[in-house]
Amino acid sequence: MSARVLVVAVVLLSAATSPAVSQAPDRPLRVATRAIAPFVEDNNGSLTGFSIELWDALKTELRVPADKPTVYPSVPELLNAVKTGKADLGIAAVSITSEREKMLDFSVPMFDSGLQILIRSKGGGNAAGSLFSILFSSSMLQLLGVIVLLVLIPAHLVCCFLLETNGNGGSSGRAGRLSFSS
Description:
disordered N terminus; single chain; 2 domains
C-alpha cells in the first residue's frame, strides 16, 4: 500500500468553503502546519516550501485573509489544533488514514510518495567504510566460516581416501605421493 501524502487543506470549516466564497470571514483564518521539508521549511521564522506556496495561492484565489501559519511539532498536534478549533485549517504533509478521516475532512491527495525505503544513518561514513562493515559483520563472518567448513571437510576426506587407495597410508613414516596413473 503506497503512503499517500498530501498537502492537507483540512476543509476550510469557515465561510471559505461555502458556496458564497466571495463573502469574507469575520476574522483572518488560522492556519496550522508543521515543518517537514520540502513541504514546509522554517528559515529563521520565515516559512517556505510547497505547502506554503500552495496555501498562498489558495488564499489569494479565494480572497480570504489569513494569519501566518502556526507551526506545530507533530501531525497529531496539528490535527488536534484543527479538531479543537485552535486552527481553521491545516496544511502540511499528512498521510490520510481512515482513522483520521473519521475525525476531519481532507482535500484530495496532491502528492503520492509511492514506495519509500528508509535505512538507518550511521553518519559520516563513506562507501569503503560501509563495505568494510558489511564484509566483516558477524553474520558475514559466520557465513564465511560455514563455507570454509563445507569446503575443507570434503577436501580432507577426499585427500585421505586417495592416500589410502594409493597405498601411501603413511605407515612407512615418510610422506606419500599421490599418483593418478593406472
